[in-house]
Structure formats: structure tokens, C-alpha cells
Amino acid sequence: MAAATIKDVAREAKVSVASVSRALNDGRGVTAETSQRIRDAASRLRYVPHAAARTLITRRTNTIGALLPDLYGEFFSELIRGIDLAARARGLHLLVSSSHDDADAAAAALRAMQGRVDGLLLMSPHADAAFLQQNLPHDLPTVLMNTRLAGADYCALSVDNDGGARLMVEHLLALGHRRIVFIQGPSGNRDAAERELGYREALASHSPDSPAIVLHGDFSEESGYRAGQQVLALRPRPDAVFAANDMMAIGCMAALRDAGICVPEEIAISGFDDVPMARYVTPPLTTIQVHIAELGSQAMELLGEQIDNPDTVMAGTHRRVNAELVVRVSSGAPLV
Amino acid sequence: MAAATIKDVAREAKVSVASVSRALNDGRGVTAETSQRIRDAASRLRYVPHAAARTLITRRTNTIGALLPDLYGEFFSELIRGIDLAARARGLHLLVSSSHDDADAAAAALRAMQGRVDGLLLMSPHADAAFLQQNLPHDLPTVLMNTRLAGADYCALSVDNDGGARLMVEHLLALGHRRIVFIQGPSGNRDAAERELGYREALASHSPDSPAIVLHGDFSEESGYRAGQQVLALRPRPDAVFAANDMMAIGCMAALRDAGICVPEEIAISGFDDVPMARYVTPPLTTIQVHIAELGSQAMELLGEQIDNPDTVMAGTHRRVNAELVVRVSSGAPLV
DNA sequence: CTGAAAGCGCTTACAG
DNA sequence: CTGAAAGCGCTTACAG
């Protein structure tokens, strides 16, 4: 048996298809009695309106698209979870697309989304100004997430990397540390750059005498290990290390441990992200927690606002998701 | 400017819409010259066919739906990644829906997917026989993933929990351990039950004299810690612990460490899953690695086969994804 | 090879 | 309140 259509319901309830449509949608313009008869017929026939037919005429898909760079790891799983939750709350479906190796693939994915979604959540390393100009349908509500670009032409949402980094530096300074090394993330990575900026700013404003000491890294554990070895060679030896992400902090701890250095007694260590394993390493890692799921939810909210108010100009709206300090053993704070 | 339609392209290329459709689809029934003119017009107008209109007539959405219980954690992120990769390879879009608190919510999600997808990947704790019978559109290709049920009526794909558990027991036996404790997962969880079965079978067949010693657990780290405390009280003391998942193994290690027991010198520990932090705990955890992404990809493949061959009866097809032994320090094996 | 026309399943003015 | 009809954008027999 093929799926029932609105015609079948109309026949079953002995009314016109127009009445079926009215009864099942806003419910107005139909007597309660007729409406009930129609509903009965619909459920008897297990009628589900054909989404494509409805989309064709209403111009609404009730679906939003999320274009992500990758789906690897906890970060994206949390991000999608947050998006999904907020989308569901609005009765919207979620179409995901990821792992576009190059700008062409991302553009193709963007094109394929056209007509399938009412709005777009976009996080892509390829999404620079030219790319967006070229590939983004002009009338499609879009929210940029953590892309390198956050110009006045688009809505954007990002993590408060800067503020989070400042919190960490203030924490380390408050513990009396003065020589605080920063391990960088990959060059060209905006999150990493913002974290470094926060580090430099906080140091300059709260402890002008403390030098900014920056070591190279690329977010990998290995690069953290190598940075840890460099830390050991520095004279005078640093009090503390602040890595631009947790994995490098963990790598750095391994290097210090291999050299017989005690953390946090001899050197404090801290990271950024609060990955799940941060609490399980030895010693547990002090870090900055980012509410990834909230990033997703808020982006979805922002997108929802745009979709609901197509005439309101929201371009240029830029919001930030808070980052919080999570104090554990590795920074050497007295834990209450 | 509204998006261009097929009519606009037809006008621009001075042909009928029928020719545009033919040129842009199979390309047959049109001279090369006309075809080229149409393609030029289409790209000039940035024409993208309206997905809903096409779906309405072709009855194909080129989208598959994934109904998942939750999106929390590494497992689902890997699963979606695998699904997405395989879907993309087939030119299919991916619609995800998750976190259905009860059977009603799951049923609603299922209904909402109807007409939006060409096939369904289903992993849900609510999906028992009655639920599927009641809510699954009969003509929609579906693959069940790790649901409690894998009857002859559906296609299914699952992890070889049983085989994985056997591999682990054989590994521990080969190392000379004879009193091997098993920490259970939550009751009612099929994965957990299969892992326990594998443990019992391997023990019975390879070391009939070794007693099966089973402690309660629920997959949480805390329950692993409690089980670890129970292990300490057992007399004679066990040689080894095999936890039904990694988090419990990690909790158990913490309990042993707190009691001053050395792992693996005094007791070997092992888990199941190979979560990312398994390699970072001290000592690194011997475990069973499950290729989650592959689980997703294979499910997608199986679904693709069904979609491509609607007449072939594939109900009852049941495939399994391999699980592999990953030897690290915690089981006490001599590492080469 | 090419075009006119029907039709996919729905919603929404427009009459009555 | 209710129904007949137009139309959303596409594809596909059917003629020519």
C-alpha cells in the first residue's frame, strides 16, 4: 500500500482536499465536527503530509543545514548535539554535511543544500569573504560559527577565546606564578590566535613585568611534548605553562614527567577546552571550559530569529559564548 | 532576486523546460550543441534545481535519515562521521534526529522523517518489535543498528561484542591469568550482555577450571570504582579484571590505585571500547577497539543496497563489525 | 531532437 | 463553512 495522500483523506472524510488541508493545519475555517471527522480519517489512514509537496508551495523546508569542517571528536559531537536540541525545540530538522576537503567540495555541499533548508549554520575553514560572496545564496539566512571571518555582512557566533585565556592568566598570576609560558596553536587558526592574544593582554595589563614567552605548537599532543622539552631548557625556568589547548597541555605534562619534574609542585600546567580526559590525566588538568553544546544551541537560536524575521536586518550581529575557568590540580591551586 | 527556476533557464537558452530538464539530467535526447547552450544559461543564472519539486515527481529525496538515541560523546560523533562519509560517497544527504526521551518522541521523529528520506538508519532503545511494527513505514528501507531487536524482518548491523570479549579473555588467559573478574554493564543493555556472554564462553572453552566471577556495574566510572573495591575484598584475589567498558576499567584502576595496588604488576586491567583517553590513563589501558565509524559506514552501505534494489528482499540480513584487541600496559603483557 | 501537456501532493486565494 | 481551481517547480511519456 502506498502512503495515503490528502486526496485519500478527503475521500474518506467526504470533504474536499481544501478542507482537509485547513483542518490539519491551522484548523480554522472548518467546523469542529468536520475537523474531527477529518482527523479521524487521517489517523485511520495514517496520513502524513508529503513534505516535498508542502515545501514546494509554502517555500519552507522546516529544515536547517549545518556545514561543518569535520565530525571528528568530542567537539563536533557536542556542537551537533546543541544544534539538534535547539532545532528540535523549534520543530526544525537538521541536515548535516561535513569533511569537505577543499573549497570546491564545500561549495558543492553548499549548493546541494540550496532549496533543502530554510537556513544555514556554517563552520568551514574555506569560508573566507570571497567564498561566501561567491557561494552563499543571498536570501538564505546564515550564521557563521568560528569562521575566520566575521564581517559586518553576516551573523556570527564564536567562543570567547580571548576572555577565556585572560581568565586563565589571571588565575595563574593569582597563584603567584610570574613566568608563564604560552604554547601556541596552529598558525592561521583563529581560536588559537585569540587565545594567544588574551594571554598577551592579560599579562601586559596585570603583570607588566612578566615577559610573554611563546612556544610553537599545533594543537597536537606531540607538539605539546616538544614544547615541554623546550620549557625544560628555559633559564630561568618558567613557573607555569598555559597551552592553547588541552591535548598540548597533556603532551607537555608527559614531557615534564619524563624529565622527573613534578606538576604542579615545580611547574603549573593548564590548558584550554576541557576535553573529557582533562579530569582523568594525572594530575587532573586545570583548563578553560567551553560550552560547545551551547555554542551550537545559540547559533541555532540566532538562525531561528533570522528565519522568523526575514525583514529584520541582522547582518553584523555577533555573539560570543562564555568560557569558564575549571580549576583542578595541575595549576597548583589550593583545592577547597 | 529570487532563485532561478527551470523556466528561467529555458527562456534564457530559448528552449522548452523539457529540454532543460533532459540536458541537465541524463543529457540524452538533446544535441550536444543545445545541451551546451542550456548548461551555459544554467550556470549564468546560477540555476540549482528545486529539490522539493524534483522529489515530488521522482519520489526520491536523495536523503537518508539517522535516528539516534543521543549525540553525547565520542561514540556518536564517530558513528555520524562514518554514516556521513558513506552517504556522501553515494551522493546522499544526511538528516539526523536524536535524543528522544520516550517512545512517543521517537515515533514522532520517525513520522516526521517520512517523505523526507529514502531510507532510515535506526538506533533507538525504544525500537522494540511492537514499536517498529507500529511506527516504521513498511515501504521505507531501514537498517537497524545495535537495537535490542534483530529479528528476521529487518536488516541489522551490530558490533561483534561477543567476539571482542572472547579476544580479551584469550589475551588474559595467554598471559597466565586464571582468576578473571568481569564487570557487567547495565542490565538490559544488549552490548553489555553480549560482552558478558563472550567472557563466559571464552572462559568455559579455554579454561574450564577458571570460575566466572561477575561484578555489577552500569558503564559509569563510579560503578567501576565500586567494583574495584569489591575486587580488593575477593579471596583469593583475582589476577585480572575485564570491564565491560573502558570507563569502568578506569574507575576500577582508580580504586586499586587508591588501595595501593599496582597495575598491572598485581592485577591486570582491561576494558572495552578504546575511548580516546584509554591511551592516556596511567597505565595505558588494554582494551577492545570497535571501529565505530565503520559501523556507521557499513550500515549506510547496507541501506544503500536496499535503496538501489527495492525488489531484492534483504530483510533478515545481519552483519557484524569486527572488534580488535589493543594491547597496552594495563594487562601486563610484555610490550615488544 | 524538441515541445506541449499532464501530473506529483500540497496550500491558498477566490467564490458561493 | 466549504469546494473548485490555480499553481509551486520539476520530470516524463507522448506527439511531431
From TrEMBL, chains A, B:
Keywords: DNA-binding, Repressor, Transcription, Transcription regulation
SMART domains reported in the protein's UniProt record: HTH_LACI (SM00354)
Protein name: LacI family transcriptional regulator
Residue span, HTH lacI-type domain: 4-58
SUPFAM superfamilies for the chain: lambda repressor-like DNA-binding domains, Periplasmic binding protein-like I
UniProt cross-references to Gene3D superfamilies, sorted A to Z: 3.40.50.2300, lambda repressor-like DNA-binding domains
Highest taxon, organism lineage: Bacteria
Record field: transmembrane: none
